[in-house]
Write a structure and sequence with these properties.
By secondary structure, the protein is α+β, with helices and mostly antiparallel strands. The chain folds into 2 domains: 9-109, no CATH class; 117-270, Thrombin, subunit H (Beta Barrel), CATH 2.40.10. 33% of the residues lie in helices and 25% in strands. It contains 2 helices and 12 strands. Strands 1-2-5-4-3-12 form a 6-stranded antiparallel barrel. Strands 6-7-8-11-10-9 form a 6-stranded antiparallel beta barrel. It starts with 10 loop residues before the first helix and ends in a 17-residue tail after the last strand.
């Protein structure tokens, strides 16, 4: 029979022998380095394990860095969009200011000579009544504006002030049916009246004899009669002229020189003090 429990070397003895063997191997390796090849193969065998463990960590770091860079790029892109929009708005405003500066220079350059005072006004509103031609400007009694004060643009006569407010004024344009203006043919010096017709670009010339020497394209200018409008300022160009047998006067029409419906800025002119600028607005008779 075999015994139930075999007795062998005691654990203490085995531990002691293994300890001595370990110390001997470490001493031998430290002196002769004979385990270098074994360590090399061991490290080579476990390198894939190190790589497999490190891949998820490296991937997570790369992904986090990618998200961070994308967020920064999006923020920078939005900042550049905002900056570009601001620059575009500034450029548009600068272009508008340059255009406005050119218009004002042109307007002032076309002003009549020998006037008491000039003032630039801005058009605020245009009367949409089809039977009248009027507009509102941003100058009024506080700016020393007076009734009957003539209004110009860079191309010609526009009209005159007909109503006054503290900060605004109503201007009657020369095409208004209730407006007449003493004019003369620049080429011949013939005097007549330019009356508004209510049509945006049509003036009617009154009291022209059938025998008058008038040509299509003749320029009409202010005559200076009444001393309200400076003499020699452009009013319009004759577009039609018909002599009618049996009538005392010829039929003639003209196109206004001023851009009555396309102005943003106008010029108010104060004639010399001797002018009766407080007179009533003319209707059908010379001023």
């Amino acid at each position: 029979m075999h015994p139930l429990f075999l007795r062998g070397t005691s654990p203490t003895l085995r531990l002691g022998l293994l300890s001595v063997l370990s110390v001997a191997l470490m001493f031998a390796d430290a002196r002769m380095n004979y385990l270098d090849n074994l360590r090399h193969y061991f490290y080579a065998s476990v390198s894939p394990l190190y790589y497999a463990v490190g891949v998820p960590i490296q991937s997570a770091q790369t992904l986090a860095q990618s998200f961070s860079q994308r967020r920064l790029l999006l923020m920078e892109n939005q900042h550049l969009r905002d900056q570009n929009l601001r620059l575009q708005v500034q450029h548009q405003r600068l272009s508008d200011l340059q255009d406005e500066n050119k218009r004002l220079r042109h307007l002032l350059g076309a002003a009549p000579k020998f006037v008491e005072k000039m003032l630039i006004a801005e058009v605020m509103a245009v009367d949409l009544d089809p039977f009248s031609r009027k507009m509102v400007i941003n100058r009024g009694d506080s700016d020393d504006v007076r009734l009957g004060l003539p209004v110009f643009d860079a191309q010609g006569v526009m009209g005159q002030v007909m109503e006054l407010g503290s900060l605004t004024s109503m201007v009657m344009l020369i095409t208004d049916p209730d407006h007449t203006l003493p004019v003369q043919i620049a080429r011949t010096g013939l005097h007549t009246l330019a009356a508004g017709t209510g049509v945006e670009d049509v003036l009617e010339l009154l009291y022209l004899p059938n025998t008058a020497e008038i040509r299509i394209g003749d320029e009409i200018v202010t005559s200076g009669l009444g001393e309200r409008f400076p003499r020699g300022y452009p009013v319009g160009v004759i577009t039609t002229f018909h002599s009618t047998i049996g009538k005392s006067y010829a039929e003639a029409k003209a196109r206004p020189s001023a851009l009555l419906d396309r102005n943003r800025d106008v010029l108010l002119i104060w004639p010399p003090r001797s002018s009766p600028t407080e007179a009533s607005i003319p209707s059908d008779t010379p001023q």
